[in-house]
Each structure stands twice: as C-alpha cells, then as structure tokens.
Amino acid sequence: MTKLERQRVNLEGCNMAPERRVIPGIVKNGMVVPQTDTPLPEGVYVDIHIGLADVPAELKSEFAQWDKASDEAWTLMEQWEAEEQ
Fold this sequence. Notes:
- The protein is mostly helical.
- It folds into two domains: 1-51, no CATH class; 52-85.
- It is built from two helices and two strands.
- A two-stranded antiparallel ribbon has the order 1-2.
- β1 (25-28) and β2 form a beta hairpin.
- The model has no long low-confidence stretch (mean pLDDT 77).
C-alpha cells in the first residue's frame, strides 16, 4: 500500500473526505492547534496558510490616508501631463 493510499484509508476511517479542507487553527507554544473537533489522523499532510492579522483602527486609518494621498498625487500628475500637451 502506498503512502497516499494509507492516508486515504486514515481519512476515511475518521470520516474526513480525501479532498482539500480548511480547518482553522491557532499557534500555541509554537504548535498549530486545530480549532475544530475534526480528528486529524497521525501522519496526515497539511498545508499551513497564514491569515491576515487583525489591524488596529489607527493603522487602518493611516493606510486609508496613504491611499487617498496616492490617489490625489496621481490626479495631479495626470493634470500636469494634460497641461503639457
């Protein structure tokens, strides 16, 4: 039996489908801890995708100000180009 076949058997045994699933988790003491009751069989391969962190309101405000300044700068540059032609 190949490794993939063993994994499929393990997944079937714990009522998990062999296709990709998203199971949320959190890092505690350097280990990823699933945040669901879904059992993960020993040896199953997982991919870890880092989600966006919560951004404080003041930082969101600063990002918005930079975006606005950027938009205003592009508008000015377009006006200057139009005047030169």
